[in-house]
Amino acid sequence: MTDTAARTPIPRIISVDDHIVEPPHLWQAWLPERFRERGPRVERRRLGEMKWVGGAKMYEYELDAPDAPWCDVWFFEDLVHPNKRHVAAVGFDRDEMTLSPITYDEMRPGCYEPKARVADMAANHVDVSLSFPTFPRFCGQTFWEASDHELGLACVKAYNDFMVEEWCGDSGGALVPLIIIPLWDVDLAAAEVRRNAERGCHAVCFSEIAPNLGLPSIHTGYWDPFFAACAETGTVVCMHIGSSSKMPAASPDAPPAVAASLSFNNAIASLSDFLFSGVLVRFPELVLAYSEGQIGWIPYILERADDVWKEHRAWGGVADLVPEPPSTYYYRQVYGCFFRDNHGLASLDEVGVDNITFETDYPHTDSTWPDTKQVAEDMMGHLPADVVWKIVRGNAARMLHLDIEAPPRP
Question: Does pLDDT of 393 surpass 90?
Answer without folding.
Answer: yes
